[in-house]
Amino acid sequence: MVSITQAKLRVAVLTGGGDCPGLNAAIRGVAKTLMLTVQAEIIGIEDGFLGFIERRSRTLSYQDCSGILSLGGTLIGTHNRANPFDYHGEDYSSRVKAYYDELGLDALVIIGGDGTLSIGYELTKLGMNIVGVPKTIDNDLMCTERTFGFDTAVSIVTEAIDRLRTTGQSHKRIMIVETMGRNAGWIALHAGIAGGADTILIPEHPYHIDQVAQACRTRMGSHQFSIVVIAEGAKPADGNVCVREILDNSPEPQRLGGIGEQLKQQLSVHLDAEIRATTLGHIQRGGSPTSFDRIFATNLGSYAATLVASGQFNRAVVQKGNQLSHVALACVANKTRFIPDDDPTLGTAIAMGICFGTEHLAYHKSVARNAPE
Fold it and tell me: What is the mean pLDDT of residues 100-120?
């Protein structure tokens, strides 16, 4: 633990990666807690790590951080292509450290997903005091049970499924809903269950088109419509992920998308039915956060502030057993939390007969799952 003795801290806050409902709530939690507990001066780094590279920041007042709890987006902007270790082919990390020193910062709070926190971990090696706050709608960060933004995204996708259901029922169609979820299928799984999907396809388990077709055929026979939810990173067992475009100057060059339309074409060979595909895209990211995400993001931000105030740096705030805690940034960096086979929500979906397009995740009546004694 680092001991801080100066009367007034100078703490910067940064939001990196994609926008996410709850970012402003987290900024507010960090800033107001530090302002009120240790009279800290809060510096907002503009547009993520790009603000460090281009030397852009501004002081945030208490008033700046008021009235932003319900707002989507981020007060200080973000950027998902400004990796200071590889920005347009050059290493700007020393420039980041120089600007950190010039600002006279005692600490930096970074609010972001796996890419942002991984960059933060590398910057700690240069001597920067960093505390990470986990955010991502994908809910795929290691060491934490949940990230803020996930609840809002699931709510948005669930509402979309509810709306598409009425069209499917009315026209006797198979409705395919493509969600975000590049590497992990948390959104598809949770929204699929909440929306009553018959089939959920996730990146963790490549699907067999014949099993998906059979599930749709069975559902069409009994209810005349079917709902299929598929994560953008899902892929057929004999194929690859669906790449929409490649951006060479991005930390993640491959931009996924289009698997819903691809699945539609695959199913049309097997089924004599009307099939429609809808891609929700960035609709899942935007808008006002749910009440859960407002509270959760505020809690995470405030907890991060207490770590800064007590001199506990190079840590990431996490939730374990419904309690907030912290782990070393190294434990979170460069890792992805996939849906494990023993996940209780996944188990529920299997037990209810939801199709995942693979025999590995199929319910067998002869096998009792978690039967009580």
Answer: 96
Q: Where are the domains of the chain?
A: 10-148+289-332, 154-284+340-361
| Torsion region of 91: left, alpha or beta (phi above 0 gives left; psi -120 to 50 gives alpha) | beta
Strands 41-45 and 57-60: antiparallel
CATH topology of domain 10-148+289-332: Rossmann fold (3.40.50)
Active-site hit among 19, 47, 106, 138: 138
pTM exceeds 0.85: yes
Please name the CATH architecture into which domain 154-284+340-361 falls: 3-Layer(aba) Sandwich (3.40)
Could you read off the pLDDT of 224-249 as tens digits, one per residue?
899 999 999 999 999 888 787 666 66
Average pLDDT for 137-144: 95
Q: 366 falls in which pLDDT band (50, 70, 90)?
A: very low
Give yes or no: 64 in active site.
Answer: no
106 is in an annotated binding site: no
Reference 139, options 178, 190, 176; nearest CA is 190
Three-class SS of 265-306: HHHHHHCCCEEEEEECHHHHCCCCCCHHHHHHHHHHHHHHHH
Residue 136, annotated as binding a ligand: yes
Q: Is there a common fold for 10-148+289-332 and 154-284+340-361? A: yes
Q: Which two tokens stand for residue 334?
A: 């460069």
Residue 282 annotated as part of some ligand binding site: yes
